Amino acid sequence: xxxxxxxxxxxxxxxxxxxxxxxxxxxxxxxKEEGRKVDVKLQPSNITHGKIDVEELVREAxxxxxxxxxxxxxxxxxxxxxKLAQRIIEYRVKNGPFKDKETLKNxxxxxxxxxxxxxxxxxxx
Length: 125
Prior knowledge:
The protein is mainly alpha-helical. It folds into two domains: 30 residues; 81 residues, Photosystem II 12 kDa extrinsic protein (DNA polymerase, domain 1, Orthogonal Bundle). 48% of the residues lie in helices and 6% in strands. The strands form two sheets. A two-stranded antiparallel sheet has the order 1-2. Strands 3-4 form a two-stranded parallel sheet. It starts with 8 loop residues before the first helix and ends with a strand.
């Protein structure tokens, strides 16, 4: 039997931090295995005082530029599959770039509820 030494509060916090880091790492590996891709670009705006601003990176990872994204990227939006992503692209090709997010409701299959689910994840550039 292995004896476990008494740990200080600081040592316990370090172990918890390392365990949480490992869990996050396993989560990232699982996402990679599922074939999902998150495109995050490190730019000076992402870095605050030499540290990465994680909240900013998460926000950027969720933003989908609906005017330039392909089927794969659009399909990452909640409730949007490949067929609906294709309709969004077809609408964009036929009518030009989306001028505001509300115009997305004109795409067949995107009603008010689905629009509310994806609105916070889309950007227009």
